Amino acid sequence: MYLAAVAVLTVLAAWLHVAGPYYETGIASWYGPGFHGKLTANGETYDMNGISAAHQSLPFGTVVRVVDLDSGRSIDVRINDRGPFVEGRIIDLSRGAAEQLGIVERGIVPVGLRVLHWPRSDADAPR
User: Fold this and answer.
1) What is the pLDDT of residues 82-126, one digit of tens each?
2) What values do phi and psi take at 45, rounded to 5?
3) Which residues contact 41 (CB under 8 A, 6 or more apart)?
4) Which of 44, 27, 40 is nearest to 108 (CA)?
5) Which pLDDT band, with edges at 50, 70 and 90, does 13 fall under?
6) Terminus of the chain with fewer CB atoms < 10 Å: N or C?
7) What is the pLDDT of residues 22-54, one digit of tens each?
8) This prediction's pTM
9) Local structure of residue 37 (DSSP, 8 states)
10) Is 26 exposed, middle or buried (0-12, 13-18, 19+ CB in 10 A)?
């Protein structure tokens, strides 16, 4: 009985990792070369090889888990920029984050976002 309960809970946890619930779902893309070394919207220098992301409305410093809904792979990123500015897209990942998620070649993928950490204030976001 115990092993059956553990098996059910393990399957449920794996299903929730991919299937939700999500703060938001939509299309993710990545950005890099044209922005590398320039300032992000929160004042940081953008490192395309680092692990960060742009979102249109989440507060700077928010940490989100981005789950590739096709593969189930995920990565945790910190919001430090604004975007994407292409209709239908909900998050732009740094190239480094996109590489770790395995989406560089595909370019755009369906994702789910889970908020892992809300910043206490704007002071949480490095400048």
Assistant:
1) 999 999 999 999 999 999 999 999 999 999 999 999 998 755 545
2) -80, 125
3) 54, 60, 80, 81, 82
4) 27
5) very low
6) N
7) 999 999 999 988 999 999 999 999 999 999 999
8) 0.80
9) T
10) middle
Dihedrals phi, psi of 68, to nearest 5 degrees: -70, 115
**Res 103: pLDDT:** 97
DSSP conformation letters of 42-111: TSPBP-TTSS-EE-SSSPTT-EEEEEETTT--EEEEEEEE----STTEEEEEEHHHHHHHT-TTT--EEE
HSE of 2, CA atoms in CB hemisphere, 13 A: 0
CB atoms within 10 A of CB 5: 9
Fold of 22-124: Barwin-like endoglucanases (2.40.40)
Tell how strand 109-117 and strand 53-54 pair up. Answer: unpaired
Residue pointed to by tokens 């928010």: 62
Provide the token pair at 48.
């395309």
Rounded Cα distance, 68 and 111, in Å: 5
